[in-house]
Specification:
The protein is an alpha/beta fold and about 290 residues long. The protein is built from twelve helices and eight strands. The chain has two domains: about 120 residues, Glutathione S-transferase Yfyf (Class Pi), Chain A, domain 2 (Up-down Bundle); about 140 residues, Rossmann fold, CATH 3.40.50. Strand 5, helix 6 and strand 6 form a beta-alpha-beta unit. The chain is globular and about 55 Å long.
Length: about 290
């Protein structure tokens, strides 16, 4: 299996561990990722509320490059990047005005996009192309007894919802069940917003949202929260001290990219998964994985 790969700008900074662990996991599964040439930031979903046309054009440039680079589907790891690129496809298909304006912008830089490049979330690829049975067969260390809280976030399946249920996504649950984990399927905060970029503009509000998610996971006895978005992971992990200070709590819950925990189950060395880059120590999780 071969896919074009769009890492997104967070993968080169705060979300570096997501990119590193993704590449290691997919290589272990025999999936080839070909990084998109000269890709640019997708603009993220928040930019749509500021300059919508510019947002479409910025995202479409990546899609135009992907269209020219190969016939393979475009694999994306960040929830926001996935939503932005998939939304651009949707609007270019449904809105003649958007399509005309975007094509005009692309023409100015010598590119063109016909709106047909499939955009796939990495979990979609893992569950529906690689397959849970095939992944389960490669497990070297089953996650038996480890209570995993899959945190989808608000943009994993919404508003596009092309590979999972928009209001009750199950793909991460099924994925970690295949790895032998004790998945907390009744995790009520799995779709709650973590605050996103609001952490920089309204920290009080964002910290409150993170508190709700962390408390929900703690109440269920979660050993680890797994995320599929660099910003979600950073807010829930990196800002735990802020949450503790604001609410008098003592959260010290490991938050990992789902690719990191999956990589451990497949027997990949923790250093190859950038486990050492986590803010909250993952030592309890590593120690709990049966040899």
């Amino acid at each position: 299996m071969r896919y074009l790969y769009y890492p997104g700008c967070s993968a080169e900074s705060t979300g570096m561990a997501y990119d590193i662990s993704t590449r290691a996991l997919m290589e272990k599964l025999g999936v080839e990722l070909v990084e998109l040439d000269d890709w640019n930031c997708c603009g993220a979903t928040s930019y749509f509320s500021v300059r919508e046309l510019d947002s479409f054009a910025i995202a479409a440039r990546n899609l135009a490059i992907a269209q020219q680079q190969g016939d393979e589907d475009l694999c994306v790891i960040c929830n926001a990047c996935y939503t932005t690129l998939a939304k651009t496809n949707r609007y270019m298909a449904d809105s003649p005005h958007v399509r005309e304006q975007v094509q005009g912008a692309l023409k100015a830089v010598g590119r063109r996009y016909d709106g047909t490049k499939p955009v796939r979330h990495i979990m979609d690829v893992l569950v529906n192309d690689v397959g849970l049975e095939a992944i389960s067969e490669k497990v070297a260390r089953r996650l038996t007894g480890i209570k995993v809280a899959p945190y989808y976030g608000c943009q994993y399946s919404r508003p596009i919802g092309s590979f999972d249920d928009t209001e009750d996504p199950q793909t991460m649950d099924r994925f970690f069940e295949a790895l032998g984990a004790d998945v907390l399927t009744d995790f009520p905060a799995k779709l709650k917003c973590c605050g996103g970029m609001m952490m920089l503009t309204n920290a009080t509000g964002a910290v409150r949202l993170c508190h709700e998610i962390l408390k929900s996971a703690e109440d269920l006895g979660a050993d680890v929260i797994v995320a599929a978005c660099p910003l979600c992971e950073m807010n829930l992990e990196g800002y735990q001290p802020n949450v503790n200070k604001a609410y008098g709590t003592h959260f010290h819950i490991p938050v990992m990219y789902f690719t990191q925990l999956a990589g451990l189950a497949l027997g990949i060395d923790p250093k190859q998964l950038a486990i050492d880059k986590q803010v909250v120590s993952c030592a309890p999780v590593l120690a709990a994985i049966p040899a």
